[in-house]
Amino acid sequence: TLGTQTDYRDGEAQTDPYSPEYVVASGSVPELLTLATLTWGRGLPAGLAEVEMIERAREKRAWEATLPAMDSASNIEKRRKMMEDMERKEWAFREQEIEKLQEVRLEVLKKLLWRQEENQNELVAKRLDAHWQNHQKAKEEKIKKIQSDTALMLRKLIAKRKNVMGKLERRDIIKEYIDFASQPYAPLSRIGYFPDNHSERYMVKNFYLNTFAGLCELEASLPDSVTQVKIKAPKPKQTVTKTGYIKRAARLEVALAQVHQ
After folding, report:
1. d(CA 3, CA 56)
2. Furthest-apart CA pair in the chain: how many Å?
3. Chain segment 51-79, per-residue pLDDT in tens
4. C-alpha–C-alpha distance, residues 39 and 44, integer Å
5. pTM here?
6. From the CA atom positions of the chain, what is the Rg in Å?
7. What is the phi/psi pair of residue 70, to 5°?
8. How does pLDDT run across 185-236, given as a tens digit for each residue?
9. Whose CB has fewer CB within 10 Å in the chain, the N or C terminal residue?
């Protein structure tokens, strides 16, 4: 009554196919026994190569059956010639197999070399991109520096052109105080006295504020209303009218409190 569902297909849970025991009758040589070396995963299930191997084994057995008996010199010479021809055919077949294997290995090697070349090209492209990015950053920084230097030189030239003839000009106090970058707001020490230098000399030194004894004396002179603060509790707001209705401000405060929460 219960069904199960797994993440695996049935084929993944199967073992190797079962091979039962067998008994060979006397006087018979079953052809199936010639394939006993093939096992599941190693030749089975049979593919094109295995079928060709079986066909060649059949042809060789048929050829062995046609060999003449070794009962005379002519038959022996004929048998030797047939065996030499078969040996040449086998060597030619073996050479073809070797060539096929070499072609397959060559194709695999070509793919590996092609993949290696692609990886190398990708790595070179990444390095070039990073190098180009660094050059771009250096170029942008150089351009920014040139622009800032240009602005500085332009400001200097404009300042020099204001008074080309070196004439004495009367000080315009109103214009100076309108401009917040002028000397009254931002004085330069190279032009004159900088008021922030030695500013500690203008600090007020008071006995009651800088010493502990002065603080104690100052605290003793203060009235009790300063040191002892009396706090009156605030009275609650009247949120209900005489007729029993809730005021609009109270309803709004409750709504705001709910929104805040």
Report:
1. 51
2. 152
3. 888 888 888 888 888 888 888 888 888 88
4. 6
5. 0.38
6. 54
7. -95, 65
8. 877 777 766 666 677 777 788 888 889 999 899 888 888 888 888 888 888 7
9. N
